[in-house]
Amino acid sequence: MQGMFTGIVEETGRVLAFARGTAGWRLEVAANIVASDVAVGDSVAVNGCCLTVVQQVGEKLFFDVLEETRRLTNLAALAPGVAVNLERALAAGARLGGHFVTGHVDGTGVVEVFEPRGKDFYLRVGAPAGGGRLLVVKGSVAVDGVSLTVAEVQGDAFAVWLIPHTLAATNLGARCAGKLVNLEFDLLAKHVEKLLASRPA
Length: 201
Fold this sequence. Notes:
Blueprint: E1 11-21, E2 24-30, E3 43-46, E4 49-57, E5 60-65, H1 67-72, E6 83-88, E7 107-117, E8 120-126, E9 140-143, E10 146-154, E11 157-162, H2 164-169, E12 180-185, H3 187-197
Antiparallel strand pairs: 1-2, 1-6, 2-5, 3-4, 3-6, 4-5, 7-8, 7-12, 8-11, 9-10, 9-12, 10-11
């Protein structure tokens, strides 16, 4: 069953290992909250990527990662000690605090500006070419799995504001200009775009 997420990160886990073995890429993450209530076969969003738990040993979670997933996301840059955002799949009847996130990353964006402005923080990201058509001011976007509200859109670049709590609860505080972030655009926007594109001229 495909998991759904909300973009509300439960904790930041720590990468223990990420290496290619005989059966492909294997990611090992140390977690606390998430590892306390998952089982083999469950979906977990790792930096916004929906991955399947293939093994659990105490607070260690293991995931198999496709070569395609590494190519399309920032997971390729993971190394031991790096913090990753973690969220378990949405449970039926649970509160939806963010927005519907599938865990299917649409591509990576490049951090253009990340700086404090007053007591908050301003983050501007350059999205992949054409991504701007899926962004709207006051709409939603998932950045490394974090549900955020779009504050500005200029072409394919967009900006969001972050409160100190978001930086403390996620790994976004470690981002800086030039770094890649995983992006998932709003599901509704993608459906509307496809419907409009299929309309006869």
